[in-house]
Design brief:
Distance between the termini of chain A: 66 Å
Largest interface: A-B, 79 and 79 residues
Oligomer: homodimer
Number of strands of chain A: 23
Number of domains of chain A: 2
Strand order of the largest sheet of chain A: 15-17-18-13-12-19-20
């Protein structure tokens, strides 16, 4: 097919080989196709990319960490140099506002994340070196020595992009080649990022095939991409159905699959908080629910509100916000269809519409925010269906009566990324909070008090993860260095290996002052040296 | 069925309910059934055990760590108090020698492991507390809040027993209830351990259903035991076929599965080492290959020997040891059958028998050690079949010619627990070793120099794990505290949670002096206190 955009395969941008089809981006506000045509890669091209990644895996694992760090830093610099153009492209393809979202928030977060990964590489904080001199054993995390495949989501064209986001930075920091399967809703943004990455890779003197980029693959190509032993691991951010289909293929081949798939992020409003600041909470909730048209993994999709006068007043205020809200634009026609289907599923399961409405028929992917409600008893009778994720500016309020019912709701929750409690500042809700926390704790990755879940700081104490089905493993975060890096690492133990044959980080001498756990104590000194 | 031994379900020893069948242990030396009849648990009993474990999961997650540590220590004390009886039972059921193996090596290792887990609980070393005051985030590992199911193997009746070994200690240390599915080849040993565990649990004031014990389950009961979301994680040590069948069920339900399944533990003998000490190496290799009748996960099953005069001399010496070796006893008739089938598969794939023979027909599960050999070229032509694991005193020698072929062999290896290099003491093999290590490193969990792989120290720098198919995840060890504990933990982040609602380990004050990563620095002080 003529005129298709180039893919980044085997170290170079090149015309697609035997593409399985073509597609374009769309302007979400109008529904019109925009930009050039991009290829859908076929099985052959995918297999070639995997082979190219396998071929450079040894060289990348052996690369000087400083080169890896220089690449990550250089890539961040390159993104900043083209920040305005990138923000304009991403806005055109996603409908997300340039300012502040794309240019002032998401892009700096993305470059900050790349630089934090570079810092973790230089500090070796991800490698967790442990030395046991009595046993003659030394251990650290090291590269998988195989390609990592990253699937990016639709909702963060920069910070979770398969060729620029946290999974990408993490896999590269651990010195693994990456095959980035970017999201087809923002191909031009991804391509531009890929070009910057490729240039930075060459400038750092790393193998050119260490980063490859495909926009979209035919269905039959998923097997070779995730379901064979040549693959070291898969990072996926996206919807549950697609994630589980890929996970099944990876699982069958013994490939670790890190999927962040779905979450409704329950928020519990306790009595005192509602009494003291119900109006402000209504505003805060509405703003969080509609941020980015509600297309956040951490969108507050479930709100537990007591049947009290303060609860009623809160709901009345929230309903006013939803009723007054203008239409918002989603990323895609599919997204609009899925949101409508999820709302229908919730209504069919017994929820009713409390506020908000429908956008008038018009071109583009416009919707209006919606607030649904259901009784706690009805929720508890059908918790699976009433935990259907509605990806967009839609939340379900569960009306509760009494602490026992609230606790039953907590126990009925699936695995989620987050749970939130709002409590009175004077501590009078704290007994209720203390009773709820142990119930919520094993069901979520991040437990939040007095703020909405939509903010995700890039911090070593973050967990952007959570129990299944929110993600595929309860012990890992996809955001926050150095933890996110460890997903793409193997545990490497060395048993009586002589000093000269050890990796530098585990030798007796410690000239860079790396922090190591030596015979049970953290130390920056050499082994045998005075501490 | 009358006269069946009791199971430990729902907090008490009780007669089995609707067992699906019965079985007995056997004396491996005679093949005679010994001891009482034990039940095969049916689906109903398994479901009851899961429900009982789920019911105590909240209480166990909330338990004082000191109670958990006291249980682990008390259990170790109880095992020591019955050490002679336990060793006698285990010897009768497994044929492993009482001394030194069971009484002087494996039993102390098991109690040491329980005490190391207790120490990790008291020190919080497994919880990895991280505090980011600027971001308002704090994180640590915590209990899964769900049952952990542990499957024990046939080859370590104490140290890997589902009710006493590393998986058990790890899951309990992380404050999860355990359902122990012990190995049916040593039911009486396991029952006695279970009785000691149960008494220690009650003495520590922990929920009595926190430890349950089943001996064997019917095939249809595997689904409820590992393949439902109520289960927090599965720890499995055993053969590959059984492990992969359970893994598939766990994977489909999103349950983390930690399986240690198979390994042939390649050993590379470099030229100088063979020249300098070939005779000693032949003895060392033979001893390791036949230790415990070769029934070690880390048995040296593959030996790469160069076609040099020193290599020939080594093989001649090794062959003498194998030819002179008396018969050894395996654990079971199945084990003997599987070993014979594996040898047949290797012979069919082109290996030839170099030394050793067959045991005369007699009662019991006797075999004689065997040394097989194959050319490197033949191995490289059919690496999958020639990496068939022969679980027993059997090794395959691969005859290599030149460094390039040795490196090709390394690249053809599947994921293994270990790889070993023997090199000359004067360093003249070190260039060859340095070229091999990067190829072996991503393919194994533990890289060993100048000693056989059969020793597995319980150390924080151990990795008893490795890439698939040796285990199901390249980043975790099943031996060594605190790493082994983290398999059974969730990552718990707290976002702006007020001090009083935080778990004690993450509060500002740090009265126990736990080691925490506070704003990038390890500290035993309180937050805000002088370091």
């Amino acid at each position: 097919m003529a005129g298709l955009q180039q893919v980044l395969v085997a170290g170079a941008w090149r015309d697609p080989v035997e593409p399985a089809g073509r597609f374009q981006a769309h302007d979400p506000a109008t529904g019109q196709a925009i930009g050039p045509a991009f290829p859908i890669s076929g099985r052959g091209e995918v297999e070639e990319a995997v082979a190219a990644a396998v071929a450079v895996a040894e060289a990348l694992a052996a690369a000087e960490p400083e080169r890896i760090a220089a690449f990550l830093d250089g890539y961040a610099d390159g993104i900043e140099a083209e920040a305005d153009a990138l923000a304009a492209l991403a806005h055109a393809e996603t409908g997300l506002p340039v300012a502040p979202r794309l240019r002032q928030v998401e892009l700096p977060r993305t470059t900050g994340q790349l630089r934090q990964a570079a810092h973790a590489v230089r500090q070796w904080s991800w490698a967790h070196p442990v030395i046991d001199t009595a046993a003659g054993l030394r251990a650290m995390y090291g590269p998988l020595g195989k390609p990592v495949v990253v699937f990016g989501p639709n909702n963060f064209p920069f910070a979770f992009n398969a060729v620029a986001g946290s999974d990408f930075a993490s896999a590269i920091a651990a010195r693994n080649p990456v095959i980035a399967k970017v999201h087809p809703l923002h191909p031009a943004t991804s391509q531009r990022l890929g070009r910057i990455a490729h240039a930075a890779l060459r400038a750092a003197g790393l193998p050119a095939a260490a980063v490859q980029l495909l926009y979209r693959i035919e269905h039959e190509a998923a097997g070779p991409l995730v379901g064979q032993r040549a693959i070291g691991a898969v990072g996926f951010t996206g919807g549950r159905a697609g994630g589980l289909a890929l996970k099944a293929q990876a699982d069958a081949a013994g490939v670790p699959f890190y999927g962040e798939m779905s979450s409704i992020n329950p928020v519990f409003l306790l009595d005192g908080a509602l009494e003291d600041r119900g109006q402000a909470l209504a505003q805060e909730f509405f703003a969080s629910c509609t941020l980015g048209s509600g297309q956040f993994c951490t969108n507050p999709g479930l709100l537990v509100v007591p049947r009290t006068p303060a609860g009623e007043a809160f709901l009345a205020a929230a309903a006013q916000h939803f009723d007054a809200a203008p239409a918002q634009v989603l990323f895609s026609a599919d997204g609009k269809r899925h949101l409508a289907a999820a709302v229908q599923a919730l209504l069919a399961a017994g929820a009713r519409q409390l506020a908000g409405g429908d956008a008038p028929e018009q071109p583009g992917y416009w919707v209006r925010p919606k607030l649904l409600a259901v009784d706690a008893a009805a929720f508890l009778a059908d918790p699976d269906r009433l935990q259907t994720e509605a990806f967009g500016p839609v939340s379900l309020v569960v009306r509760s009566a009494g602490a026992a019912q609230v606790q039953a709701l907590a126990r009925a929750l699936e695995g989620n990324l987050t749970a939130t409690l709002y409590r009175a500042a004077d501590g009078r809700d704290d007994a209720a909070a203390a009773a709820l926390i142990p119930l919520l704790r094993p069901r979520v990755g991040r437990l939040i008090v007095d703020r909405m879940p939509t903010g995700v700081a890039v911090s070593p104490a973050m967990n952007h993860g959570g129990p299944y089905p929110a993600t595929s493993h309860p012990g890992f975060t996809s955001v926050g260095m150095p933890g996110a890096i460890r997903r793409f690492a193997g545990l490497h133990s060395y048993d009586h290996v002589p000093d000269a044959l050890l990796p530098p980080l585990l030798r007796d001498a410690n000239p860079t002052g790396a922090r190591r756990l030596v015979d049970g104590r953290w130390s920056t000194a050499g082994v045998g040296a005075a501490a």
